[in-house]
Amino acid sequence: MDHPSIIPMYGIIREQNSYVHMAMKLVQGMTLQEIIDDHLLECKKLKGKALLDFEQKSLSERLSYFIKICEAISYAHDKRVIHRDLKPENIMVGSFNEVYLMDWGIAKIVTEKQEKTVAKEAKSKGSVSGTPGFIAPEYILTGQVQFASDQYAMGAILFQLVTLSAHIDGSNEKELLEKTIRAQLNPLRHLRSEIKIPTALRAIIAKAMAHDPENRYENVALLADDINNFLQDRETVAYKDNFSRAVVRSLYKHKMATALSVLSLLLIFAAITISSLVQQKKSIQLAQQRELTLINFQSALEQRAGHIDGHFSKLSNVLQRYGDKVKYLLESPRQKNQTLRFYDYKDYKNKKDNIVGLVPSALYGHEVSVKSGNYKLAPGLELKDTRKELLALSPIIDDTLAYMAESGANLKEDTTVEELEELALNKGFAIRWVYSGLANGLLVNYPGMGKLSEAYDVRSRFWFKHSLTHQKLFWSSPYIDLFGQGLVVSAVQPLYSKEDKFLGVSAIDITFDYAYNTIMDAAADKRTGIIKNRYLMNKEGKVILSNLKEMSNLAEAEKTQEEIQFKEFPYPHLINSIISQKSGQIKLEQDGQTRLIGFSSIPTVGWFYVEELNFDSLLE
Fold this sequence. Notes:
By secondary structure, the chain is α+β, with helices and mostly antiparallel strands. It folds into three domains: 9-243, Orthogonal Bundle (Transferase(Phosphotransferase), domain 1); 307-513, Beta-Lactamase, CATH 3.30.450; 522-619, PAS domain (Beta-Lactamase, 2-Layer Sandwich), CATH 3.30.450. The protein contains 20 helices and 22 strands. Strands 8, 11, 12, 13, 14, 15, 16 and 17 form an eight-stranded mixed β-sheet that branches. A five-stranded antiparallel β-sheet has the order 19-18-22-21-20, sandwiched between helices. A three-stranded antiparallel β-sheet has the order 3-5-6. Helix 5 packs antiparallel against helix 7. The two termini are 50 Å apart. Pfam families: MCP-like_PDC_1, Pkinase. Keywords: ATP-binding, Kinase, Membrane, Nucleotide-binding, Transferase, Transmembrane, Transmembrane helix. InterPro entries: Kinase-like_dom_sf, Prot_kinase_dom, Ser/Thr_kinase_AS. It comes from Lentisphaera profundi.
């Protein structure tokens, strides 16, 4: 199963005369139970407003982890896999706040035929697997696990995340199982009595842990949607709004739009003696249309920002797995009978016959090979001094095309290797280059090519220098690719040994077309003169991409091959507000016109997507 929140397996290895080993991602972080325990201790220490502020923030953090686990379980259920042992101890949160669902040791695959049999026939009580307290009552009674049984366990985890206390007590397994069957759960209240649990959140937990599986959510994805609706202060399926709650929610959520509506109503009341009922109705409708226009504008903006963030998040995950494998190969080299899969860049330049798969590519503008890679030695480094590393890294050639293909859109599952090679050479994926630079000056690159100079030293590249001050994956600013791929941005993963020795970096180059097309695309609103400008702004307030050419020295950088210099956001007094608020709208007066600045964060790369509109034209 390949999902960002399911612990990835790199392979199954069997040494001669030894055991079978599974190579899996090493996660540096904490279990969800440890996070709950830490927050519990903090809540015990704090008082008054400090307690309320801490718990409000930490609850949102815990619920965000919960949503990611729901997404992983929903993916597994779609593959017809039931986990059967969901609990806080089996959930890990990494150092980047990435969430992993662990311990699939007792997971079960259920066919559609088996699922229908469980739904129709009563089963006698049998043995069950899992952790008492998290095992669903129907599983205990019948011995038959269902997809809804995982949801019950998710509800129990949610209970603990919200209350910071156990959902059920028992001195032994038998007592826990009996209490589960009788639905004798602990009262749903927070560890600290000062903190009140919202009714909507209570209803979500009750629905997820309903004793009868038929009364739970139809699937885990709907449970995640309800948690997300709660965090966004929207109506939930578990706790429908009545009229008064709907009105209050709307007024609170759309403060600016509400102010416009109230002002319109006051004007209507002042003119009621000279206005007809028909005119009043039209005024109210106009206010509602304006409010809806503002909501739709922000929703469309956040959707575009979300697409960009999802794109970069997926690519970050690809690089992390590639970098982990590079580090694994360097630290555990197996050179016996190993074939060198990287060739000297000069061999590519001279088109030697020994190069595997070297063909012309219109996309790259020169001959490349997607069946092999090239290496480049820094000046002063000799092949004999780094041949060991080249041999150790050679097996990764078999996987690199697959890493690149993960950045493609709508690829069929049965796409062959030959079809992937054809796509890479002619149409291209978002990832154009995959490479690693070692501390000794060795560069290995894929696809293989010869477009390098004798003086090229990977250690002199600005992204390599930046990695010396980073321990974690980071994204570079956009720059001009030396080898004809235009504007690119690099994701860079510094590599450190188990002893914290710097080994080098692994990196991927991404074409910036995806974000650029989003900036330039005016399809969201084709009415002329409304969307004035679009920007991608970094957290330093610099505009890294815009429809305004003068926001950078892009043309000059294309000639000099230097790093691009970016100008400051045109409204510097708004930068702090945009960075602190993450998402929203700001209205301002500029050159006698009213402008609306809408913005949303792109958390994976730490950027912000901003649109500048003509406010009056938008409302018209």
